Amino acid sequence: MGDFGTDRVSVMQLRSPTDSSPTSTALTFKHVEKLGSTGYGGFSQQQHLTYHDSKLAWDGVVTLKDILQPKGISPFPMGSVFGVIRIDNAPYGCTRNEIVSVLTKDVMLAQYPQPSAHYGVYFPLDMQNQRATGVIYVEVQDMAEAARQVRVFMGNKEQGRRRRIGNREVNLSISDQGQLMKVVFDKAACVNWDSSGRPLLHPPADSSLDGFKGFVHVEDLTTFVSMAAGAAKYARTQVAKEYPQRPYEALLAILRKYPCHAWEIVPFHECNLLYDFANDMATALREQMGTNLQWVHVLHRGLMNEIISAVYSFNGFSTPAKQQFAARFG
Questions:
Q1: What segment(s) does the record annotate as region Disordered (predicted)?
Q2: How far apart are CA 36 and CA 247, in angstroms?
Q3: Number of helices and strands (H, E) in the chain?
Q4: What distance, in Å, lies between the first and last C-alpha atoms of the chain?
Q5: Predicted confidence band at 58 (pLDDT cuts at 50, 70, 90)?
Q6: Residue 289: how many other CB atoms lie within 10 Å
Q7: Does residue 192 register a pLDDT over 60?
């Protein structure tokens, strides 16, 4: 895990955005320097300022009135407007293209980031047994689009046109962001999710138990890295042997769905943890690409580019961290 070192915040003289004299009532938050820092993956002090008002970001100039203004308290969207479709009984080794083929040709998929060809398709894993579940979630533009897709699917089913992936007949139903977040962050204790994917903390049922400690667990991240790094040499599990892309898709799911908008409860250390996790996974992918002809269609440069894009879009990483990651794996 990266060490944040010592923060040195450079605060410019009091001045007005419209006045060059240093005697008026505005602050310029110039920058935050990281001294002795080797891990840029977490929130910087400056980024915490930006959560209160986007005008505080980077080299921006802010007046006292701006600071006290209650509107626009967070630049991050509170939850998600994307609709969610649940697909059941999918083959464990199916690809995203096969999943999308079940939907209509004009489906409006959620994109990460917009616009791009990186879509929100999620393959939950049973971490206890290290195997797939056969349940897949797909994000679309909004709930109306999710309802349309399920309606078309059910209409075709009633007419005898059943959709299959491989030799399995699949079923579609409407889900929501809360269910998706519960699946992606299934180990998060004392957290409920509303239908837009916002986390709502609650105390533990038993006062002797620990409460909320974070959205991800080190043990799960370590398992993902082990599954990815040891796929070629130790293909002992179903995931590592038959669909080695799943751990990387888990990384994408965590980065895309991590609730950065809930900045007041995000554990400070978790962003460093996720940055190290992304580096380890990208390193494993780089080592695996091209080593097994059986996997060239799932472990490829396109997957690496998608990981880089997810890292760049993650609001919990600083700009130097993103640049360092892209320079290393781009």
A1: 1-24
A2: 32
A3: 11, 13
A4: 22
A5: very low
A6: 15
A7: yes
